[in-house]
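pasting for ref
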Amino acid sequence: VVAGSTVELGCGTQGDPVPRVQWHKEHGDLPWGRHEVDQEHTLRLYTVTPADAGTYVCTAQNQLGTAAATEKKRG
């Protein structure tokens, strides 16, 4: 990933009932003011810096259970 660029991380989910999706960074916080999650649960990180490197976790949860997937991004 090139510093200053935008990164997109996808999180494909399915379930009945439809799961609630949340993103977090495994060790630290999502970059304040430089991220968003769209309707398809894609996490976008804007103007990335080396400090944004790490493992990002997408968690989907509904009444029947929880599932999580990770994606590691290097600076």
